[in-house]
Amino acid sequence: IVFPLLTSILSSKVQRLLGKIHHAVLFIYSLFSFSITLFYVIKTKEITNWSDYLCSPIPPWLRIVSMTFTISKIWEWLDTAILISKGQSLKKIGFLHIYHHATTFLLFLCVMNFPGGEKSGMILNGFVHTLMYYHFAFRLPKLLRPIITTLQIIQLIMVTYIWHVVPTVCSSYKHFPQRSFLEFLLPYALVPVYSLFFFKFFIEQYLMSSNKKVRASSHKQE
Question: What is the pTM of this model?
Fold first, then answer.
């Protein structure tokens, strides 16, 4: 309610400009987070040492980046506000978008408990969001849109696997599931829902829509 009231005094041109700036800044920030974390794991050779990657805590300077990356999940709520300001209803925006944005901040607060999950979040999610926000700000070729959704699903599966194995591989974290049961359980409650609805989105947007276009084309030829 508040955001549309504030934007109602702005022209549509200014609203589009502000939306583009929002997406462009998130693109730059996501690229920064992804790149600097990837640089760190390459420099420390953790990228070739599975145990160190999963178990070695990140340095204080990278923890600051991780904290800002988690806070950026609140910043991303503006994605929804921008869509609402354009006149889209919550029904049109869809459950996946609303649920995903409403819960990722909480998810990343949990992920920060494990070094492997923390690094993977910034690398994998940072990379996907680099592509996604570039697309929102500047537009990628239509052919690449299914690839972004596919990468989103892959990164969810990979980070969940990493979250699952850390207590087994890392002795320092073997008691975490017992000591912090709810925090350990939360990703298992949230991520499958994301994955399911991203699969649903992929099928509806890229498979079913393609079939409809083929049928429409065949009818025209008839």
Answer: 0.88
